[in-house]
Design a protein that fits this description.
By secondary structure, this protein is an alpha+beta fold. Strands 4-5-8-6-7 form a 5-stranded antiparallel beta sheet. The N and C termini lie far apart (about 50 Å).
Length: about 260
């Protein structure tokens, strides 16, 4: 690691002030990506601003909305009785992330701020049309994700919570990397007030994306069989040592059918 200053503010205003005052300062949430990057000397922040004392964790179910505080860990989301009752597909997704150590340190806000192309949360955010709330505004899911590791966030902007509309039917299925358990391909399907939406993570070179052909087919017939014969183009899909673009295209269809079956 490089040398850096360490700050642990106790208010959101102070955290934003620290980040605004120094262009090289970086926020620390759960650290599941940031700490390894520091160890590999791939990032050289002047100051690390720890967000753990800002009171941004917590879960609230209000009517047809589930709101998760940005510093809530994956383990808390996955084990929450409220989330399991109101939005079980979200709890199940959180329980699939990484391993126990990752789930007890990683946070939903940190994951979304990082926007790793293989992360699980972007799929549920985009599929449900969730809203990302920050210290200064609310950002619709469609406007938030802007490519691999890219979001609509300003450098000194901090996510405070995420609000999910509760769908009538939903499920998430992913093909795990056997070592890290990240999503080589993950598909979240949702049917609710915003219609049928299908979001794919882990496969696209630009990060999470909606599968409009699947959405059209499932709108007409909500069943795994509705996806028969729909071929996902390989263009724009990842190809690496773990899976070719061709294989990922095939996996998208398999995971989508499994998710629809699981949603019921």
């Amino acid at each position: 690691m490089y040398d850096f200053a360490y700050e642990k503010p106790s208010s959101l205003a102070d955290a934003v002030k620290l980040l605004s005052a120094d262009a090289e300062a970086k926020a620390l949430a759960g650290g599941q990506t940031f700490i390894p990057v520091l160890k590999q000397r791939l990032n050289k922040p002047s100051t690390v601003v720890d967000l753990s004392k800002l009171g941004l964790s917590g879960i609230k179910v209000d009517g047809e909305t589930v709101t998760i505080g940005a510093m809530t860990t994956h383990a808390e989301v996955g084990s929450s009785a409220e989330v399991k009752r109101a939005f079980p597909a979200l709890a199940a997704l959180a329980s699939m992330i990484g391993d126990d150590q990752v789930r007890h340190r990683g946070t939903i806000g940190g994951s979304l701020a990082n926007n790793d192309p293989s992360a699980c949360y972007p799929a549920v955010v985009l599929a449900t049309g969730a809203t990302i709330k920050t210290d200064r505004r609310s950002i619709a899911a469609e406007d938030y994700f802007q490519g691999m590791f890219a979001t609509a966030l300003e450098p000194d902007e901090i996510i405070t919570s995420i609000s999910f509309p509760i769908p009538a039917k939903a499920a998430y299925e992913k093909f795990r990397n056997p070592a890290s358990r990240y999503a080589m391909v993950g598909v979240f399907v949702a049917k609710g007030a915003k219609g049928v939406r299908v979001a794919v993570t882990g496969a696209g070179q630009g990060g999470v994306f909606r599968h409009t052909e699947f959405e059209k087919a499932l709108t007409a017939n909500w069943s795994p069989a509705a996806l028969d014969g729909i071929v996902t183009p390989e263009d724009g899909l990842n190809s690496d040592i773990h899976a070719s673009a061709e294989y990922r295209a095939h996996l998208i269809g398999v995971m989508a059918k499994r998710a629809v079956a699981a949603a019921g």
